[in-house]
Design a protein that fits this description.
Order of helices and strands of chain B: HHHHHEEHHHEEHHHHHHH
Radius of gyration of chain A: 23 Å
Bound molecules: adenosine-5'-triphosphate, magnesium ion
Strand order of the largest sheet of chain A: 6-9-10-3-11-12
Shape of chain A: globular
Largest sheet of chain A: 6 strands, mixed
Low-confidence stretches of chain B: 1-15, 341-345
Distance between the termini of chain A: 29 Å
Strand content of chain B: under 5%
Number of helices of chain A: 17
CATH architecture of the largest domain in chain A: 3-Layer(aba) Sandwich
Distance between the termini of chain B: 22 Å
CATH class of the largest domain in chain A: Alpha Beta
Number of domains of chain A: 2
Number of helices of chain B: 15
Strand content of chain A: 25-35%
Largest interface: A-B, 47 and 38 residues
Structural class of chain B: mainly alpha
CATH superfamily of the largest domain in chain A: P-loop containing nucleotide triphosphate hydrolases
Mean pLDDT of chain B: 84
Oligomer: heterodimer
Number of strands of chain B: 4
Structural class of chain A: alpha/beta
Largest sheet of chain B: 2 strands, antiparallel
Helix content of chain A: 25-40%
Shape of chain B: globular
Mean pLDDT of chain A: 86
Strand order of the largest sheet of chain B: 1-2
Radius of gyration of chain B: 22 Å
Helix content of chain B: 55-70%
Low-confidence stretches of chain A: none
Number of strands of chain A: 24
């Protein structure tokens, strides 16, 4: 029997003149997975933060087990059995995995914190999530995907009856998502109610029991699983159907970026990238597919100049660039859209506009001074190009929804007018319309001779954008395909068990 | 639908922002309040002559706090400014007294301009030590500049044996007069030190708001990793701010030595704290990335005018210390209201 455990009744939320939610009714059903779909900035995260006590609604009420309820803060909601996995990671980077998971809920003995017991529980959680993460590791040493796992583990450790997941899988690979879904099914069987938000529509469809669509702060549709499909979601989300299409027809030119025998060590001297060779031609879009830990991020960060290689060459347009600084590489047209937008992409103290123009300051500096008008033109152009939903360039970066922040990071790098662009999981958190837009921009660039190196853990992205698909496994290229390959082949080459 | 985007110029929003304006303009309103209160308490306070005197005292802190602002914007701190000030004064004093070249058996009296240039170089060099320690060797700024603070003070003491160089006016026959110009002369009735402060403030303000370097500084103070990946030369920026801070400390040292026509190794004790206070009262965030020259200048004047006012109405110096402390705490309290605390909106 399904009843409604938690509901929002006519909930509205405004930030000054920005109406994030305009009177939304939303039900969470007992023991079911309710998925919430919507464009970037539709109000999904805002609604979830209200239901979990993180922020207060401007009007409307929350109903818990049929009774009106008020949560003054997240701790109060947690005490009533509601926990949330936030879209933006909320871990303390200097603390260990264990301490993060039990932060604020330490297991106490009369003599202090019972670290052994905490550690035991963390290990249990990690076994359940089929991850090999040591409880003692500081979180800052973990890859983004692993941090997301820790965030999930923390929410699971609470034993709540309502679990809200705001894009929990944006940095996970397909097999990890499988594991998470198994966990979600177990939770469901135990009667836990779940809200699941994702821009991976197909993926979300496999787990949903009931789908709800938000659009511009209003609920536009709600239906049980058996009455929905992909097309229904997209139609209600954006009002039209997007086709991510197939790779653009371009004529590859000369080799733009050539990587020869590149090796990248980690802190302990072990190689994360081992003697890798790769050529990318102008006008070519190359996708790198691989699991977490395959060395994709390390490869891209080394080419961008952030990490030091232990050997090998990076040649841009026939010139060795290994010794150049990041700034010089950007000036020569080699730029990276980093994976972790909070840590590597955005400056939180600066406005949307200043973030967008940060990597191209030279383009609007005349002598000693920056040209304010030229800068504003560049910012407005970028906002339009990557379709950032914002009240303007002066808005604080933190006032944007997660997906719109991601668009700012992409827009910033596109504004540098690169000749070789590298993107590390750029579709993290952006909606299907924006993804189509990014793909269109890349395709258009490629037609004009831009070389694109696109790293992703979503096979379908590879197939709809790449001319060539490289699979990385344990720091090496394990296979190379053209765009006519099947999903299964790609996944098999990455060392992933083909589950779906 | 575009209903969720806003028109920033709508009048309703302006009135909603009144509290914000009060919060952001707090240093300005504090300054007005201080001037109003002391003017009503003492007839001597609100006079042009007094304002000029007070301003020339503020100049010293003001110059230091501009350097401090740059360092704090970068997410660092510079505890060595007071010591660099003393060291620079002593170096200048030593040169004014004549540099004995044993090998040649002559005493050299460099002209004042050379003294000034060499002193600035000393300040910049000590700042560069700070910068290299912090940027290249990754020593936390607090520790690096704390160490340099002791070392610089120690060198100043060693150079003078703890004594003070007096009478730095120079002598006509040696061709090195003019040192007192900085501290005593006036241009259009305004003390030179105030003009120096104003020029530095204008240059720094333009640099922060309108130059690429300024943008680099705000970015690397806000998020160094992101700035670096966007092509900001974060190490160069970091070293530069410490060098500039050191150089401005030397300027302050010269101004002070000139005002006093003497230079002692114990000058400028705890001035670094006053400079930090001015920056914080001016609304900068100690975590980096936020702050303006305008705010910092207001902060410096708040501190300067407050303590001068207390002196004029005859409050004991012990109470002055208490008041200054209270103002600082109040300012930081408002900082956390502005940047953190309850969510806005
Ligand atoms: N603190 C804030 N100040 C001002 N506006 C805000 C704030 N937080 C959110 N908003 C605005 O509210 C709207 C909804 O944001 P929300 O984060 O809920 O979107 P979302 O549906 O989660 O999008 P995404 O898919 O990108 O995560 C956006 O237009 C956003 O700009
Ligand atoms: Mg969101």
């Amino acid at each position: 029997m399904t009843g409604i455990v938690l509901a929002a009744r006519n909930v509205a939320k405004s930030y000054g003149q920005v109406h994030a939610l305009k009177g939304v009714n939303f039900d969470i059903r007992r023991g079911e997975v309710t998925t919430l779909f919507g464009e970037n900035g539709a109000g999904k995260s805002t609604l979830m933060k209200i239901l979990s006590g993180v922020i207060q609604p401007s009007s409307g009420e929350i109903v818990l087990d049929g009774q009106p309820a008020r949560f003054a803060n997240a701790a109060e909601a947690q005490a009533r059995g509601i926990s949330i996995i936030h879209q933006e990671l909320s871990l303390a980077p200097n603390l260990s995995v264990r301490d993060n998971i039990f932060m604020g809920r330490e297991i106490m003995t009369p003599f202090g914190v019972d670290y052994a017991e905490e550690e035991r529980q963390v290990r249990l959680l990690m076994t359940e999530l089929e991850e090999d993460i040591d409880p003692q590791t500081p979180v800052e040493d973990l890859r983004l995907g692993q941090q997301q796992i820790v965030e999930i583990a923390r929410a699971l450790s609470v034993d709540s009856r309502i679990l809200i997941m705001d894009e929990p899988t944006s940095a996970l690979s397909a097999s990890e998502v499988e594991v998470l879904f198994k966990v979600i099914r177990d939770l469901k069987a135990r009667g836990v109610s779940i809200v699941y938000i994702s821009h991976h529509l197909e993926e979300a469809l496999t787990i949903t029991d009931h789908a709800v669509v938000l659009r511009d702060g209003v609920m536009t549709a709600s239906a049980p699983r058996d009455r929905i499909d992909l097309e229904w979601i997209v139609r209600n989300m954006v009002g039209e159907n997007y086709d991510l299409g197939s790779p653009p027809k371009t004529t590859p030119g000369d080799v733009a970026l050539s990587i020869r025998g590149l090796s990248v060590p980690d802190a302990t001297g072990q190689d994360l990238v081992r003697g890798l060779d790769l050529d990318i031609r102008a006008g070519e879009i190359v996708c790198i597919y691989g699991l977490m830990g395959a060395g994709r991020t390390e490869l891209l960060e080394t080419v961008a100049g952030r990490l030091r290689a232990s050997g090998g060459q990076i040649v841009l347009d026939g010139q060795e660039v290994s010794h150049l600084s990041i700034a010089d590489r950007i000036a020569r047209g080699l730029a990276l859209v980093p994976e972790d937008r909070q840590r590597d992409g955005l400056v939180q103290t600066m406005s949307v506009g200043q973030n967008l123009s940060l990597a191209s300051i030279a383009r609007f500096t005349r002598g000693f001074f920056t040209d304010t008008r030229a800068e504003r033109a560049l910012i407005e152009d970028s906002i339009r190009r990557v379709t950032v939903k914002t009240s303007g360039g002066e808005a604080a970066i933190g006032s944007l929804s997660g997906g719109n922040q991601q668009k700012v990071v992409i827009g910033k790098i596109l504004a540098t007018q690169p000749r070789v662009i590298m993107l590390d999981e750029p579709s993290r958190g952006i909606d299907i319309g924006a993804k189509a837009e990014v793909f269109r921009l890349l395709a258009e660039g490629a037609r004009q001779g831009l070389a694109v190196l696109y790293s992703t853990s979503e096979v379908s992205e590879c197939l709809s954008i790449a001319h060539r698909i490289i699979v990385m496994h344990k720091g090496r290229i394990s296979a190379e395909f053209d765009s006519s390959v099947s999903k299964e082949k790609i996944m098999a080459a990455s060392g992933e068990s083909v589950a779906a | 639908m575009s209903a969720s985007t806003t028109n920033p110029a709508s009048p309703k929003r302006r009135s909603l922002n009144l509290t914000r304006i009060l919060l952001e303009g707090r240093a300005f309103f504090a300054l007005i309040a201080i001037i109003a209160v002391f003017s009503s308490l003492s007839p001597n306070y609100f006079t042009v002559a007094n304002f000029l005197i007070m301003s020339s005292q503020v100049a010293i802190f003001g110059i230091l706090s501009i350097g401090m602002l740059l360092v704090i914007l970068n997410g660092g701190i510079d505890l060595s400014v007071g010591s660099i000030l003393a060291l620079s004064g002593v170096v200048a004093g030593a040169m004014m007294q004549g540099v004995e070249l044993d090998a040649l058996g002559v005493i050299l009296y460099p002209p004042v301009w050379a003294v000034v240039v060499l002193t600035l170089c000393v300040g910049a060099a000590v700042g560069a030590v700070n910068g290299v320690l912090v940027a290249i060797f990754k020593v936390p700024p607090f520790v690096a500049t704390l160490g340099v603070m002791y070392v610089a003070r120690g060198i100043a003491l060693l150079m003078t044996n703890g004594l003070t160089y007096n009478n730095l006016r120079g002598r006509e026959e040696l061709g090195n007069t003019g040192f007192a110009w900085l501290g005593f002369n006036r241009l259009w009735g305004i003390p030179i030190s105030v003009i120096v402060l104003a020029s530095i403030a204008i240059v720094a303000g333009l640099m922060l708001s309108r130059s690429a370097f300024g943008r680099w500084l705000y970015a690397s103070g806000g998020n160094e990793r992101a700035a670096e990946l966007s092509g900001v030369p974060v190490k160069r920026v970091k070293i530069t701010v410490y060098v500039v801070s050191g150089m401005l400390s030397a300027v302050a040292g010269l101004v002070l030595a000139s005002q006093l026509t003497s230079a002692g190794p114990t000058a400028g004790m705890t001035y670094e704290l006053t400079a930090i206070a001015a920056v914080v009262i001016g609304g900068a965030a100690l975590t980096g990335g936020r702050g303006t020259v305008r705010g910092t200048m207001l902060g410096a004047f708040v501190i300067g005018f407050l303590s001068a006012g207390l002196v004029i109405i005859g409050v004991s110096s012990y109470w002055q210390t208490v008041f200054t402390g209270a103002v600082i705490v109040l300012a930081v309290l408002m900082n956390s209201l502005q940047y953190g605390g309850p969510r806005k909106g």
